[in-house]
Amino acid sequence: MIDNVSYVGSAGISAWIVSAPAGLILIDTGMAAYAPQLEASIRRLGFRLSDVRIILISHAHFNHAGALARIRADSGASLMASAPETYALEHGVYAGSEDRRDWDFPPVHVDGTIADGGVVALGGVRLTAMITPGHTAGCTNYLLPVRDAGRRHTAFFFGSASVAANRLVGHPQYPWIVADYRRTYAPLKAVDADVLLAPHAEFFDLAGKRARLGKPGANPFIVPGELRRLAAQTAAARKPEG
Ligand SMILES: [Zn+2]
C-alpha cells in the first residue's frame, strides 16, 4: 500500500506486514478461522512464514487476535503486546466478558511486553507504540515513518477507540473504562500522521483507496487529517450511558 507496508487482512478485518531487510513484522491476524488465508497472503507476497520475526497486536479481541496462536506457532515469531492485554491473550478471553464463551479465542503465549512510547525495532525499521486505553485496557497503536515518492510520511496503525460491545455502566468492562475513554481521544487527535491504517477496512475506506492505488496521482493512502476526523467521529459516537 505504501513503502514497506502490505495488507494481508480479510475484506473487513485488517492485518499488516511491515517488511525489513532482517524479516517481517506482522500486525494483527484476524479471526482464528482466517489463519490459513493469512499465511497464504504472506506467501503470495513472496515471503516465507518463517520470515515473520515479530507479531504485534492492536488489542486482545477474538476478531483481531484469533489467529495469533496458530501464526505464532507456524512462523516461530515472537509476540509482543502491551502489559494490560497479556491476560486476555494468554487466556483467550474477551476482557470483561469472560462469560461470553463465543468470544473466546485460542490462547497464545506473549513473548514480551511493550510500554507506551516503546520502540519495536527490526533492522532499520522502528515502530513506536502508543497505548490508548478505552476499547481495551491496553489498546495499542503503532507509528511508523514511511516514504513515498521521495517524501516522508507517518503511518498510524490505529488500535481502535470505539465502544463496540463494551459495557461502560452496570458491570463495566473494567472499572476505570469510562475514565480511560475520556483520556483516549485527545492524544489521538494530536497524532501527526497522514497515513491511517485502521483495524476495520471501513474505518479508512480500504476498498476505495485500493482501487485508486497505482493510478496516476498521489498515493491514495496519504490523507492528512483523516485520523483526526476519525478520532473526532468516534468521540462523538461515544455513548457513556449505553
Ligand atoms: Zn475490538
How would you explain this protein's 3D organization?
This protein is of the alpha/beta class and 242 residues long. The chain has one domain: Metallo-beta-lactamase, Chain A. It contains seven helices and eleven strands. The strands form two sheets. It has a six-stranded mixed beta sheet with strand order 1-2-3-4-5-6. A five-stranded mixed beta sheet has the order 7-8-9-10-11, with no helix packed on it. It starts with a strand and ends in a 5-residue tail after the last helix. The chain binds zinc ion.
Jot down its keywords.
globular, 26% helix, alpha/beta, Metallo-beta-lactamase, Chain A, five-stranded mixed sheet, single chain, binds zinc ion
Number of helices: 7
Structural class of the helix and strand makeup? alpha/beta
Poorly predicted sequence stretches spanning 5 or more consecutive residues: none
Widest sheet: strand ordering: 1-2-3-4-5-6
Helical amount: 25-40%
Count of individual domains: 1
**Radius of gyration over C-alpha positions, nearest whole angstrom:** 17 Å
* Mean pLDDT across all amino acids: 91
Distance between the termini: 37 Å
Shape: globular
**Percent of residues in beta strands:** 15-25%
DSSP strand count: 11
The sequence of SSEs as H and E is EEEHEHHEHEEEEEHEHH
Q: Would you identify the CATH H-level superfamily? A: Ribonuclease Z/Hydroxyacylglutathione hydrolase-like
CATH architecture: 4-Layer Sandwich
CATH topology call: Metallo-beta-lactamase, Chain A
CATH class assignment:
Alpha Beta
Ions, cofactors and other ligands present here are: zinc ion
* Main β-sheet description: 6 strands, mixed
